[in-house]
Design brief:
By secondary structure, the chain is α+β, with helices and mostly antiparallel strands. It has helices at about 5-10, 15-25, 115-120, 140-150, 190-195, 225-245; strands at about 1-5, 30, 35, 40, 50, 55, 60-65, 95-100, 105-110, 130-135, 155, 155-160, 165-170, 175-180, 200-210, 210-215, 220-225. Helix 1 packs across helix 2 (about 15-25). The radius of gyration is 21 Å and the shape is elongated.
């Protein structure tokens, strides 16, 4: 059994928060009876109606998206900026981004309508490895890299250990190119890490999440994820989650 608002959201009709508003307004029926309490639970086979329209279960879909620059990880934007869902106009399901990338950050972004999958991928204890390609201002020292790898304090909380490799240096323009592997995904974490040690990030690209990468995709393109890829990500995240509880 599950809460009514969760079942409505899982059907793809609307978000859970808006489903709660519909329930409060008396616009939802279960098996022909109006339900207005948020704690009401439904079971498999129950007939759910919103404004007299019968809801049907929605197929779970999973996409790998190559997020380009100049779009935000949201379903809509009050300032009229392009959002990631604008690239999925031919997709019938109501999908949303799994996690976030900044407006000017490019790379791997998972998109789905599976709330449980999204929560598992984004949960702090899942510790899925993410790989980023970074270009920073300045020529970074080995000592600073070692400091970042061990973990530094951001807003009073120490970052988890990570791996960083210098992939190139532009002596003329005084910039450094690096690859960083980390298992956290806090808001603007990579940018904040380098800014804290005095290096502004000029370019940030996420090339891999867990076992999946952007091979074969160009900016703005997406593909349906293979069932095996989804299964591997779930397995990895669950294993990390269980390990971190011990």
């Amino acid at each position: 059994m599950e809460r009514l608002q969760k079942a409505i959201a899982a059907s793809g009709y609307t978000s859970r928060r808006k489903a709660e508003d519909l329930i409060r307004a008396g616009r939802v029926k279960v098996n022909g009876e109006v339900v207005s309490e948020l704690g009401f639970k439904v079971k498999k086979g129950d007939l759910i109606e919103v404004d007299n329209r019968v809801l049907e279960g929605e197929n779970k879909v999973y996409y790998m998206f190559y997020k380009p620059k100049g779009c935000i990880c949201s379903l809509s934007d009050e300032f009229g900026r392009m959002t990631v869902v604008d690239f999925f106009k031919d997709v019938n399901e109501r999908i949303y981004p799994v996690g976030r990338l900044d407006y000017d950050t490019t790379g791997v972004l998972l998109m789905s309508n599976d709330g449980e999958f999204a929560n598992l991928m984004m949960h702090p204890s899942s510790h899925l490895e993410k790989v980023y390609e970074v270009t920073i201002d300045g020529l970074i020292t080995g000592e600073t890299l070692h400091q970042l790898e061990k973990g530094i304090y951001l807003e009073g909380v120490k970052t988890l250990p990570c791996k960083i490799k210098v992939t190139g240096k532009d002596m003329e323009h005084k910039t450094t190119m690096l690859m960083i592997k980390l298992v956290e995904g806090k808001n603007r974490q990579v940018k904040k890490m380098f800014e804290t040690v005095g290096h502004k990030v000029k370019r940030l690209h996420r090339s891999q999440v867990g076992t999946v990468n952007l091979k074969g995709l160009r900016p703005g393109e997406y593909r349906i994820m293979k069932p095996q890829e989804v299964k591997e990500l779930k397995t990895l995240a669950l294993e990390k989650k269980i390990k971190n509880k011990r």
